[in-house]
Design goal:
Elements (H helix, E strand, L loop, with lengths): L1 H23 L4 H9 L7 E3 L2 E2 H10 L9 H13 L15 E9 L3 E8 L3 E6 L4 E5 L1 E2 L2 H7 L14 E10 L7 H11 L1
Antiparallel strand pairs: 1-2, 3-4, 4-8, 5-6, 7-8
Helix pairs in contact: 1-2, 3-4
The structure holds zinc ion.
């Protein structure tokens, strides 16, 4: 009973907050309903800001807009995007030219580790107002621009860039070994 009461209360708070927030943006009634109740009319919401049904369709529409150049990797990423139940399960192909400040970090047993800045940042949710993915980025630090001046840094940051997402890159010693077997292992780790 207490749990139910709490649920009603918290839903009511979310409802009032989101309704005033949304009315300002002049969104349609259905969208307010969807966001408040966290479900689509198809009742397939799998996380707060995530409708697997709608988002997998959005990913599918972008399948012809990117490629890793390797059909196994493409298929693997596509499958992950279609199956993603929340933002943490999404995989994306990041083209090399969307990275900046690629810097050697360490050498592991089977790979070399680099640090870099991804200009776009990871997907958080669908932004229905602007009809694009909402992405997570943070304000870049002074030291990032200092690193850009270092001769060892590949693809140095331009000075006019303000935001990015810090990533770690693992480069396998023998990248020709990227095949279905390796991807099955990654799949196992993700599930
Ligand atoms: Zn939906």
């Amino acid at each position: 009973m207490n749990e139910l009461l709490y649920d009603i209360e918290s839903n009511f708070n979310t409802l009032t907050f989101k309704m005033s927030d949304n009315l300002k943006k002049n969104d349609c009634e259905k969208e307010i309903h969807d966001q408040v109740f966290g479900i689509c009319s198809d009742r397939n919401h799998t996380d707060d800001d995530w409708c697997q049904n709608c988002n997998s369709k959005r990913f599918q529409q972008e399948f012809n807009k990117w490629t890793s150049g390797n059909e196994h990797i493409d298929k693997f990423i596509q499958d992950a995007q279609l199956k993603a139940r929340n933002r943490y399960e999404v995989l994306e192909w990041i083209p090399y030219d969307r990275l900046r400040n690629i810097k050697y970090h360490a050498k592991g047993g089977f790979s070399i580790i680099y640090k870099a800045i991804w200009l776009d940042g990871r997907i958080c949710s669908w932004d229905s107002e602007n009809e694009k993915w909402k992405r997570e980025v943070s304000y870049l630090k002074h030291e990032d621009f200092e690193n850009a001046r270092n001769n060892d840094t590949k693809l140095p940051l331009d000075e006019n860039i303000k935001y990015g997402y810090y990533v770690v890159l693992k480069s396998p010693n023998n990248s020709s070994k990227i095949n279905e077997g390796l991807l099955n292992e990654v799949n196992y780790l993700l599930s």
